[in-house]
Amino acid sequence: MKETYMHSSTMKRIISFDLDGTLVTTEYVDAVWLERIPEIYAETHALSFEEARNIVEREYLKIGPEALEWYNIHYWLEKFDLDIAWNDVLESCIDRVATYPEVPEVLEALGTRHTLIIISNAAREFIQKEMEVLDIGKHFSAIFSSVSDFGKTKKEKSVYEMVCERMGIEKSAMIHVGDNYLFDYVAPREARIEAYYLDRDGTHADEDHVVRNLKDFEKRITGL
């Protein structure tokens, strides 16, 4: 039997957003991990940028996004023997932080009717930098880093369950949206939480509970 979720468009809900790739473009995190870290590695070890980037990316892939270390700037600076403060690395790319175009309007609209939160795989250090730059933090009642707050990635359904416990809500009161199929769609649904997969590229456009952008998501959950 097909799983369905029943809710009223007028009922106050907890609307949970992923951060990078959902609210905020990936340009900032890509600049940190794929540009700045390789640049520093190249300078430290007297290599070309391309040589350094190849080495750095190989090491990233050995860990993979399901491991906590993947998100840990302290781990990578130590592993690569880079003598630079983590804050300086993050600050050096801060001009690359930006939201997707529809985000301010969607947050303003949904925030008048629902309680908004963020559940991100990003480490707290990254989240804080992004919130310092962007004028969106005011919309959120709570911001959770799965790796910093729970020591888990969002592949674990328990992350969503623990967020519900901390918020003091039933799982049926939450709706989550994000751009990672496993972390933002499969895991919350395993926890019996309504979830939408944000597919900005349109590769899953015909599937149920798939949205192309956050304006589409807003229309889906408000019944417009």
What composes the largest sheet? 6 strands, parallel
What's the CATH first level of the largest domain? Answer: Alpha Beta
Number of domain units = 2
Structural class determined from secondary elements: alpha/beta
Cα gyration radius (Å): 18 Å
Q: What is the CATH superfamily of the largest domain?
A: HAD superfamily/HAD-like
Number of strands: 6
- Under the CATH scheme, the architecture of the largest domain is 3-Layer(aba) Sandwich
The CATH topology of the largest domain is Rossmann fold
Count of discrete alpha- or pi-helical segments spanning 4 or more residues = 10
Strand order of the largest sheet: 3-2-1-4-5-6
What is the string of SSEs from the N terminus onward?
Answer: EHHHHHEHEHHEHEEH
- Mean pLDDT across residues: 93
Dominant shape: elongated
Percent strand: 5-15%
- How many angstroms does the end-to-end distance come to? 27 Å
Helix content: 40-55%
Low-confidence stretches: 1-9
